[in-house]
Design a protein that fits this description.
Blueprint lengths: L4 H12 L10 H4 L12 E7 L2 E7 L16 E8 L7 E9 L6 E6 L7 E8 L2 E2 L3 E4 L11 E6 L11 H7 L4 E4 L25 H12 L2 H9 L2 E3 L21 H18 L17 E5 L3 E5 L19 E2 L15 H13 L4 E5 L17 E2 L7 H13 L5 E5 L5 E7 L5 E8 L9 H10 L3 E5 L3 E8 L3 E9 L9 E10 L2 E6 L1
Parallel strand pairs: 9-10, 10-11, 13-15, 15-17, 17-19
Antiparallel strand pairs: 1-2, 2-5, 3-4, 3-6, 6-7, 6-8, 9-21, 12-13, 14-16, 18-19, 18-20, 21-22, 22-23, 23-24
Helix pairs in contact: 3-5, 4-6, 7-8
Bound molecules: fe (ii) ion.
Fe (ii) ion binds next to loops.
């Protein structure tokens, strides 16, 4: 229906560059049969709006090869969206060219759907059909939404564990899934884990594509993508551990590091259900954005990696630990970078939503880890850029932002805490959602951390899992869902803790 051959050919020329198209290329060639099933990486959807969403797949009959086993030729991928799981009532369909320059990924931006309802979708290419995915549109902009269930996760180191958490995430039937970073880990394969990274540490596009090929081959991850639309942001390991801006931990020459970042961002784009205008240009890719869920919620998604200045007080650091140096509170040094910080403040000041959910990579609250040498802060997260946190808290307070809540990841522990500018006066609550499989800290360590930081109300480091959030106009309920063990493929789940935030009353209650 929205298929237009001229558009298709025009897009191919734009995407691939006309000179790069094989001279013998024809639309007929793009429709050639593929011997092997190209849908080994599953399907995904994301970026729901009231009228549509993004549908994603990547053709890769051999996902552990850099080209996915696809060669250089473009291939036509047809798609359809239906109102029922058996795809009998198809309401939109079309075709897009998958080209080698984009790893034969497709990012279909569907429009013209109805707000606030479920849809099902499928792709076809080379004589094969993909699995069917379920997705949904966001509610109408001004809809009075009664409830939203979402699940959020982060940190799925493939070697560290199995992803049984996703079995339970799917069973929880969320309307929306947020992934808050560390979708892949870049480290070389070792024999120390329960399963092995397939190759050396990726530094170029071919390497990152293989790494995503391994991760996205996991059937539990595929099932979670096929169950609901995802909103994704990255953390450090999608490029390399602890990087920020143009700087890695090894202080690699920035020009060389940015080439690596460009490759990593390109591979990230190729494997995520993102809108096409997010496609990176060189080492730059704008990822911060908002999502509205009727009048009930606005989500502000942040990128705390790409735009930050160099590490705080690095000369005085020991590992990540730094003293309370002047750079830490220098307002010109923003964890978000100036443009993103101004954008966030403006979005917060103008939001009409009942709940304002800040979805980002870390624990935002000020954390001290007292050491005899006086180095008590980490220079890798918000505590290295305390002025950025202060600016957000002041905006929440001064603009009377309605019900701010923070979700985070990165540290592989479940943490619930309160954010405040004056002791005892919480402005927001935050919930760090554990990790899907990456290993965390011992509970003895977590209890020491909690004792030193009274803003933390709950900590648990020994279990893997995800967070579940149930939002209504009156309240926000957050449940930490923990699997018994991530060292086995299947594992039962239990509620580690449950928290309530009452609308209009900042601060959390442990249920
Ligand atoms: Fe992580």
């Amino acid at each position: 229906m929205s298929f237009d051959r001229r558009d298709l050919l025009g897009r191919a020329a734009v995407l691939a560059g006309a000179a790069l198209l094989p001279s013998a290329w024809t639309p007929a060639l793009a429709q050639a049969r593929l011997i092997q099933d190209p849908f080994t990486l599953g399907v995904a959807s994301g970026e729901p709006s009231p009228r549509g969403m993004v549908l994603w797949t990547r053709l890769a009959p051999r996902p552990l090869q850099p080209d996915g086993g696809m060669g250089a030729a473009p291939v036509e991928v047809r798609w359809e969206v239906a109102e029922d799981p058996r795809l009998r009532r198809v309401v939109r369909s079309g075709a897009q060219l998958a080209v080698a320059e984009a790893g034969h990924s497709v990012h279909v931006e569907v429009a013209g759907l109805r707000p606030g309802r479920e849809y099902w979708y499928r792709f076809r290419a080379g004589g094969h059909a993909s699995p069917v995915g379920r997705t949904r549109t966001a509610p109408d902009t001004f809809a009075d939404v009664k409830r939203l269930r979402l699940a959020y996760g982060s940190c799925q180191k493939y070697e560290a564990g199995y992803w049984g958490a996703y079995d339970h995430l799917v069973a929880d039937d969320p309307d929306l899934v947020l992934f808050l970073g560390d979708y892949i880990y870049e480290q070389a394969g070792t024999d120390k884990g329960v399963r092995r990274h397939p190759d050396a540490e990726p530094v170029d596009l071919a390497g990152y594509r293989v790494r995503y090929g391994a991760y996205k081959s996991d059937p539990k991850l595929q099932a979670a993508h096929a169950a609901a639309p995802w909103m994704v942001i990255w953390d450090d390991h999608e490029v390399v551990n602890d990087y920020g801006g143009d700087q890695d931990r090894l202080n690699t020459d920035p020009a060389r590091f940015l080439r690596r970042r460009a490759a990593a961002y390109q591979a990230y784009f190729e494997h995520m259900p993102l809108r096409r205008h997010r496609r990176p240009v060189g080492p730059d890719m704008l990822l911060y954005r908002t999502l509205d869920w009727g009048r009930l919620a606005q989500f502000q998604f942040l990128d705390t990696r790409q735009h930050r200045p160099h590490r705080t007080c690095d000369a005085q650091s020991d590992g990540k630990a730094i003293p309370d140096c002047p750079q830490r509170t220098d307002p010109s040094r923003s964890l978000l970078g100036g443009a993103q910080q101004r954008w966030l403040v403006e979005r917060l000041e103008t939001s009409q939503a009942r709940w304002n959910v800040l979805a980002q990579q870390y624990l935002v609250g000020e954390i001290q880890r007292p050491r005899p040498d006086g180095r008590i802060y980490s220079n890798d997260g918000w505590s290295g850029y305390a002025q950025t946190r202060r600016r957000i808290l002041e905006t929440w307070r001064d603009a009377k932002v309605s019900n701010p809540v923070v979700l985070g990841g990165d540290i592989h522990c479940f943490i619930a805490g309160e954010l405040e500018l004056e002791a005892g006066k919480p402005i927001a609550s935050e919930f760090v959602g554990g990790s899907i499989s990456s290993l965390g800290a011992s509970n003895a360590d977590m209890q020491r951390l909690q004792a030193a930081n009274p803003n933390l109300k709950f900590t648990e480091g020994e279990h893997r899992g995800y967070g579940r959030v149930d939002l209504t106009p009156d309240g926000c309920e957050v449940t930490f869902r923990a699997v018994e063990s991530a060292l086995v493929p299947q594992s039962p789940v239990r509620n580690l803790a449950k928290f309530q935030v009452e609308a209009g009353r900042p601060g959390l209650h442990i249920a």
